Protein 1
Amino acid sequence: MSSYRIQGATGEWEVVIGLEVHAQIVSKAKLFSGASAEFGAEPNQNVSLVDAAMPGMLPVPNVECIRQAVKTGMALNAEINRWSRFDRKNYFYADLPQGYQISQLYHPLVGEGAITIDADERSGISEPKTIGIERLHVEQDAGKLMHDQHPTRSYVDLNRSGVALMEIVSRPDMRSPAEAGAYLRKLRSILRYVGSCDGNMEEGSMRADVNVSVRRPGMPFGTRTETKNVNSIRFVMAAIEGEANRQVDVLESGGTIVQETRLYDPDRNETRSMRSKEDAHDYRYFPDPDLLPLELSEDFVAACAAELPELPDAKRARYEGPLGVPAYNAAVITADVETARWFEALLEASGKTSPETAKAASNWLISDLFGALNRLGKDIADSPVSPGQGAELLALVADGTLSGTLAKQVFEIMIETGEDPGKIVEERGLKQTSDTGAIEAVIAEVMAANADKVADYRSGKDKLFGFFVGQTMKAMGGKANPGVVNELLKKALA
Amino acid sequence: MSITDLGIAAIRDGFRNGDFSAAEVADAFNAAVSSARALNAFIIETPDHARFAAEAADKARSAGSLLPLSGVPLGIKDLFCTAGYQTTAASGMLSGFVPTYESTVTARLFGAGAGMLGKLNLDQFAMGSSNETSAFGNVVSPWRRNDGGNAPLAPGGSSGGSSSAIAARIVPAATGTDTGGSIRQPAAFTGIAGIKPTYGRCSRFGIVAFASSLDQAGAMAQDVRDCAILLEAMAGFDPKDSTSLDIAVPAWERELSADLRGKKVGIPKEYRVDGMPEAVDALWSQGIQWLRDAGAEIVDVSLPHTRFALPTYYIIAPAEASSNLARYDGVRYGLRELPEGANLQDMYAATRAAGFGSEVRRRILIGTYVLSAGFYDAYYTKAQKVRALIARDFEQVFQDVDVLLTPTAPSAAFALGEKSADPLEMYLNDVFTVPASLAGLPAMSVPAGLDPQGLPLGLQIIGRPLDEQGVLDVGLAIEQRADFNARPQNWWVK
């Protein structure tokens, strides 16, 4: 149970949240035409006769888009409907060439499913929580109007017109902005694992309509508003908070909430009314007579299931269990499919892994590698260090060639130059030494130079041991094996 | 006998035999077309296309590489998009619209060696039964009543340009489209043969859509054999139309047989309606006798939901049309009306008010109404249920009989202007043709006799799904016995 409450003037309010996420399907071609679905082309370059709704043009479903949606449905533990149908949603707008959007209202491709969001004490999510998925359906995206190209006219770019979207509708199961954020992060993670959506909210390939209502804890649902097209997780959380507080203010000052569509303004961090239910469109949905019902064969469904990769929850359980990765590390690494892939390549390059090596590798990845990538502002996919190089570095630490300190030095050089750690160690002489003769000679020098401290130590100031270690390591340029230094120092100071 | 008296088979065979060249055929028909403008059968004439195809046919004949329709020129209903040639659907909305693409049906015909004499006039967007809704003026039937009154008569609709041109022998044959009777009724009115195949036989790709679940291209010609030849060249699976049937096209012409021994012909009692002229009833009885003579067994059958077909059709067809015609919005092609200071909504309103004729507007309004919230179930959902019952009626009788014989239309051709003031009376013209359309069945009209005023009457044959052969065979048996050789007086040549 979420303990998130809005403290109103008249008492506590609970927030109820449902999300409708539009996720652009990763595919070469659009949902019903052969035109390219790639992002970033010059305006109107990726437009077929079908997308422009020329007279006599007909839609033909792209099986790849259907496959992606089915796999996504499976990843959401959802029911895959063997029989679904496309409907037309009719309305006029200049970015909608057909005058209708082909969508699925009455018989969606995917039915009931669920997503589990993880516990996150810092965000007030005390335990894992299941968020219901009501449905997933496939539909066409619209084009885009450009109002800044001409003083009095608007231009239309149809590149996006007809691109395949999945609309993923949650149950009103979330009770705080943090839960909504966690749901979106988890959903995005799953979509990226499946490879059905790149989850890139800045480019608009994933956007959310946010349904919010408030109620007294334990009371029936209140009237909801829908805030359209919010395009970042941060904005979704801010929009919920702002909208919920607005509703509480309205209710506490004796008003009522109007069921309406609202827009979120990130600059002012507030939602504002777009249109109320009274002037809502009548979309005149009806089955698209240009398309036959979509019937999935058992073979097709089985093939989709076979293509499904290991998903974040399963991967995390495997990491924590047989692999021996600490729970926190497992959660961080499995949250993002690219990170998990990198980690698994790292383990594979390391050869046979024990729980110790898996733990060491996970620690190194989320501290050293993440730290460096953060500094460089790079994604793990663009890491200057390859998994093979990382494995080599970890092996050099494991076999005693490098101390932790030396390993950090070598890693910095790897980041800068992209060179292999073995080569760096060899060429720059960064190898750790366990040569007892050399170490003993340095210890003798250090003790001679600090005779007073030797006396102090021998008279009981044990804490000075660290001083001698430091001086010895310093004199050896950090390359002495710390274990050997410890051992020899103890003997010499005894 | 002149070349322009010949139909497809006679031209094809005469050309192969070397009786005449394809160029002679094209020139003769091009001349006939340009001398018959009083009929207003064409929206544009395309003599260059016919001549070019003829020259190619003559070369092919020399090279010994003849195609099925080499040397045959055709009229093309102006609902088929033709690359490089204006395509209007007889609407001001598309005046001047020149597609860059070819409909699948015309591509097949031209690929089979046929040439195009011109784009034939029709009811606007194929909505009408008299050709009076064309934005390019109505087509006139070549037929006149023998009462000396000389009232110009309707050629039927919507394929009225096709029917009139064939009856006047200015084209040997033509394409038509049939949504609720648009091939069969004009064929009956003008004393020619016309077949609408099973829904899905011909691709709808590139045909300006009226009602997607009903629209079907078909053949119109002087006789049954020519219909078989033409339909064979038009039909076939097309991956660009999701509703197209992936089934091989039979050799209908080769398999034609007027021997009906062992066949059962059903006579549906519901097609005997009040107020039907005596001549229509008598011809029906005569037709029954002819089929008995051809060896068929006659069976009285019942299609109990027939009386609901017309209202059902006039809900479903306008519903689909209201959505299909939303793309004509003035944004991308065709007419744009942009009054001074107009915003987007104003542009839509002005463009659609100016571009659509009154019958098209009426059907868009009916369709919008029946799909709107609160009325959808009462009209559209109910109509779909009744449609299923009508289809089931046919399924049941086709367990007992092979084909059905009915009149094509409840009367002979009416005078232009006679019914245009009363849309309901106009819609009643389709009473016998819409049931087969709703059930997606193959159906044809063959000329069978004249009424007391000397006007042609047709008989309709309805067959099982995919049994075009059965329909054509019964048509042939009637044709042979009816020996219909009446021709209109040649008043139109200038």
Protein 2
Amino acid sequence: MRTASVLFAIVTCVIFLVQPPAAHADEAKKYYNQAMTQATQGKYDAAADLLRKAIAIRPKFAEAHHLLGIVYATGLRQLPEAVDSFKTAIELNPNMAEAYYNLGLVYQGQGKFAEAEQELQKALAIYPRYEEALLSLAQLYERQQSLNKAIPIYQRVLAIKPDQPESLYALGYLFESQGRSAEARELLTRLVAAHPEHADAYYLLGTIAEKANQASEAERAYRQAIAARPDFVDAHYNLGFLLKAKEEIPAAIQEFQKVVKLKPDYADAFVNLGVLYATQKKFDQAEQAYEEAIRLKPTMAEAYYNLGVFYEFHLKDTVRALAIYKKYLDVGGKDDRIQRIVRDMRK
Amino acid sequence: MGQGSVPAGPRGKGVCLGKLQGGSGCTVWRVKSDSRAGGCNGRSMGMTQRIRDEGWLICFVIGLMLLSPLGRARAEITAADEIEQLDEIEVTAPRIAPLPRAVPFQLPDLSSVSPLSPDSSWKRGAPLPPDLRGAGPSRLLQDNTASTHGSRTRVRYLEPARPAYPRHAREMGWEGTVLLRMEIGADGMVTQLRVQRSSGHRLLDQAAIAAAQRWRFAPETDGGFTMRVIVDVPVRFDLADYAENEPLQ
């Protein structure tokens, strides 16, 4: 009788573990949903606790393992724990494409690109039109410079979703880098038509136009990039060049002033300001700009070069010019004329 | 010709030609000793002075051979005042390259999880926007004044005074070419002078030296800089034509 009672208890426990009663399942779901809410609010520790409770009640709760993996990876930055959670989720549900996808992302974050590729491919084997997995795989190839693999995958994304912005941009970028400017321009034009807020696309269109010597179009594109993102440093920078080319010096100065305001350690922009101020015969400002460039980047040969030229030709101060030219050579400057002058003046 | 005592120059074995007057502001002129060029004395200098105004036609061929240790190419001669006016700025812009593209790393996104529905449909995370924060454009403006106006001008004569042909040399029929080596200072003055190769007649060498001390130059320039240079100047004494056209007085 006693043996029968023990056996009954064991069988009951086994049944409970293998197939939890509906009440337990509901409780696990409840914890899961609460965890989801907490995680959405950025309360990752609380979310993890709730998920662990859910898993304690229902160890084979694949979705809970999956969500815990996401909380570990994204919220707590515990990538090894995240890997374990995703792997458990996959063991429990081998058809869970999201778990493969997310595991692939974590592997990428860990720099394990071969493993990442494998997991993304598994996700795509389950669901070939998995847009995010395709995109992630394309980016993985792009990051590894396997452009011939990346491009067709970006194109697969666009076949699923023609206005997908990252794929349009990435393809535009890659085509441009391969000299396929016309195709790049077509994709980017599509992109800005669908996403007028895409400052990067405007910027890239600007550089493509500049290469094609279409200054007006380039200027328009840079201005649109700035309209979409007013603190777009590089768009201001390039616009400054275009304005200088048009001899609109005060406007060019204004752009480079914006650049150094947005990025006060941008030594190159200070050099450009120095050159433009010198053009305007604003000698004090030119000198200050050059000196700031040198302060920011003491080994910047170009800054010494321009400051030396400024002293020699604009201030007619050959003593200071010579001193700066010597520094220019010290930091590796190779200009023939300056080498000649410094050598001859040492005689 | 009498031989006077000759003080040695401070720079070694040269033979002093005397302290010459030339308003050049320079000091002692030295002539390096040469197997054919002996010392000098007051008499020889006096002779030089006496014949200076005799009107001998002197073949005076001067070629400036600027010493150039690296054999570099030099710019065409340009007037100094033009250089002073050169005050412009040119700008170049190198080819534009697209910004380096930093492919973003993504991490698992909550949106790839459904809020619990075992049979939920697909819901996937949105890709991160492209991260373009890479190095900025690498192009720089450059003050191109030096490349357009920083050319080098050769040293050139301002006041070339022809040497006098010493009367005694004319009488003796002495001819020859003396090669003078001169240092031209950044102010255009002759700061050092020596006989690099004698004519074979000390008297002719002395006449060349006496004239050269009065020469003035526009110094060599390179942009805003004026350069000290060393030049070799050949001075040829040739009697042949004069004997026919201009009798001795």
Protein 3
Amino acid sequence: MHVERSLDHVQRWMLEVITSPGSVRDGLECEPAKREFAPEVLPTLILPSATLTPERRIGIYHDMYLSRMVEALEFDYPGLSHFLGHARFHQLVNGYVAAHPSRSYTLNRLGDHLPDYIAAARELPRRALLAELARFELAITQVFDARRDEALDLAVISALSPDAWPDARFRTIAAMQLLQLDYPVDEYLQSVKQDGAHPSLRKAPRFLLVFRSDLAVKQVTLSKREWTMLDALREGLTLADSVDRLSRLRPSLSETELFAWFRDWTTMGLFRSVEVGKK
Amino acid sequence: MTNRFNLPDLGIGIGLRTTHFGHILAERPEMDWFEALTENFLDTGGRPSWVLDRIVERYPVVLHGVSLSIGSTDALDFDYLAKVKALATRTRAAWVSDHLCWTGVSGRNTHDLLPLPYDEPTLRHVAARVRQVSDFLERPLVLENPSSYLEFASSSMPEHEFLARLAEDADCGLLLDVNNVYVSSYNHGFDPAAYIDAIPADRVVQYHLAGHTNNLTHIIDTHDDHVIDEVWELYRRSVARTGAVSTLLEWDANIPSFDVVHGEALKALRYRDARASEESEAAGAR
């Protein structure tokens, strides 16, 4: 239909102009915009005001677009934006939203590809560290928004018969992530939020649990053994298979230690259900 | 006058913002109602969702969206609309509103409220979509006039005429943002009073009030300050036509304390009360 195609043309053109990296002039002259309308027809599309030219008027939308993207990602990635400083973060976002524009009705998911984008950004100094920091910050926002699950009561686990334990599968809550990191990005973010001295960002491998409890996102550093066990359970392995996975790590797991872990995990509200019986 | 949808006058409300969550939950302030930004509560099972559930236990809530993109040439997103509908049911929302605008196309979202050309084809396009949305939501959609910073050369009618005809053709309600009228009138050089006078009064189910930033060459709708006198005057003028209608103050940047925002919103009472006094006197004279 000619009618809607015309509106469609206008919208596709305006989208390309206002989301184009660089200046609004760059936007008017970018190839996707020119496929809809040549730059010189701008005055036939947009009226001037008493004080602003058509280019300046569409430029308001162009400038606000990037500001809005930067603001949204600064909110979700405070550690990353602090590390880079406003100008470099702005530059990063400029490239990122050109590669990964929002395709959602919510800005909450705008930054979902940022860790991978940084990992692939060869020109970025310390990109391995920055990608890890971004991965940690993304985990925080994902855990913050994750589905609300009713936590399993400790009494339910205590009531399990000894025979049922080996084949039991403990289903973890949605608001929980396990991260294996090479750098102390958790300590760095904490220092940013507390406006304190930053830790050294040399390699210091760590195993983190990020979870939501009492509506707040919390993080706990785990031993490699505890992290491995919890990760196996999160994957859906039976307790016996999870313990088996742990057998490669030393020291070997004692029953006392295992029960202590379960008590802690249940107190933290990490399980939503337990399935008993072979599958 | 009551609106034709018989939607209630909720009184004076403010926009529900994260920074005020703690105060509202702890102090339980006397408050007529809140407007919640729809998209902030669609995909979260965390604190925002929990807080909203606590608030609807105590206060009436209205949902106000920014991503419907009613004017886009992209297909309507019914997955999104299904979530909006579910949220409206859960919160017992008095109504659901969004903006007369488009926010993106080709599957991309700018998260801005972008202006439309005000012409006949666009009117038919938007009206058809509004009807679809209202049918899906099983309630009349309420649309807000946007602030805008450009005008399309192809527009064949003023915004107020487009809005009035759209409301009639699509049988939708209107959320009249008086600050937006002022902002756009400044940016485009039209008479804001004439705009107000042209809005079909019986379709106005809600007002918005807000502050803005005047850059001298143009005004940006920043919602970061007190309402200026000129906007209050437009509000007075409109209330004289519509009677008391649910009124909400938006404050989205440099947000002060709850009490300051609420105090600013309550200034609207003097215009609503003045109108009520006039009605009362007129009834007495009869």
Protein 4
Amino acid sequence: MSKEANVLFDAPGPRARRRNNLLTAVSALLLLALVTVAALRMNDQGQFAWRLWKPFLNGDVWANLILPGLGNTLKAAVVASVLAILFGVVFGLARLSDHAWIRVPAGAVVEFFRAIPLLILIFLAFFVPNKVSPVIAETPFGTFQRVMVDTFGGIFGVEINAGVITVPAFAAVVFGLVLYNGSVLAEIVRAGVNSIPRGQSEAAYSIGLRKNGVLRLVLLPQAITVMMPAIVSQMVVLLKDTALGFIIAYGELLQAGFKQVPANYENNVIQAGIVVAVVYIAINMALSSVANRLERRSRRSRKTSAKTMGTGTGAPPAPGVSMAGAPGGP
Amino acid sequence: MEQLLDLFDFGPFFDNIDAILDGFWATIRLSIAAGILSLIIGIVLVSFRVSPVPVLRTVGTAYVNVLRNTPLTLVLLMCSLGLSDTLRLVFSEDSGVNYYWWAVLGLSGYTGAFVCEALRSGINTVPLGQAEAARSIGLTFSQSLRMIILPQAFRAVIAPLGSILIAMIKNTTVAAAASYAETAVVMKQFMDDPTFQGGALPLFIGVAVGFMILTLPTGFFFGWLAKRTAVAR
């Protein structure tokens, strides 16, 4: 019996064992009934027809639709992860600053992006520049805007034509993912550094290190070990959120597997949904198992006395929830 | 330079405030229904996951692993396009009502998996000694659950549940993919409208502020409640 059950249940005696066996039988029957009802419903609507499942054994479907979609998903996820970690480290450390003029604006930025939905951020990047840029082009800032887009926009495919900026779906998805997940990672970084016992920084100061040295040589190396599992868990969230690109027609896995495949193969949405879900689940569970392994390793190791931040549900509390008691909170 | 100020002209925003508020009202209705239902689903799931019956434990674990690792967009699309449109499982002939309930069901099915995990880790925070002490003074299973374990476990999960609720409020926007007309759909319609030229930035600011009005007080409330009810150990 698993560990958590021990709090709730004593070791079963003969009567409890009989009851458990009965419950097992009843629940197995109920489960079987449920599966049967679902299967009958599928059958009624002709969803077991071979022609609906066959496309997924066809190599061309994988090579031309699903795998390129998966490639786009991974591309957005990797680019966004790297930038989000950068954003998270910068803003997380900024929130730990001793100077209020750095700490307060950084805190406002992080809390703002955590308080609004990711999809709204994606919409901001996707729709707003297109509407706003013609107006800016009329003003003295028009040249500045054009130079900025020409210089930096090219990396993400952002284009400017006669003063009108077009943001491709990829750039919009990455923009949203970076700001939202970067803000969550900033909270993770802050919590990670705060979780290092005070004695560590006191000892570092007492041997004559400056603020920079204390952070760089003593706190951060320990904090990275502590927060690694939480960071990898956040990567799973980020990867799942790339699916929001579906709404603005970014050609990622969901768009390719769930829209284009059914559009070309007799509208087999149920079958496509199952196949796409299996792909997502496989990738995410692989990533989660990395996080769990990191967590176990870091709990075992004696490199830091701080407690490892878990891979559990939503590592940092949502905005507002933690503010009251959190050390260094605004 | 005055044109730049026009970018922040809230005129078009307030001209269409009715449609935007309708969107937020749809978001709130979805949040309330999905919040209640996801709590119920989470409680059922966690009772499966910690039960002494292996079949139920397997079902609970499988459900949580599948739903937690599938994007919400896919879950909601499967509900609306798959279960509703293809398998013809409909709640109502009225398509608006039907998609509303499928959005509620999809969102709570997804959130329920997270609620289950939060509740389970709450049960794990109760030290084993508490349960052993309860048993040794002769409390029955339901008594020890009711008087010793759940009160402590519940207090430990208030803050995580608050975070999940806030995440869920933000996730209602994903229902835009599943044919349910809430805030994100309204915003997208205005943004797609070529005549809605000047109001883009105010619309974003307005929608963002609207969501902050929904999420931040919820966060403060749960933070306050969690602090107030914290178990001293």
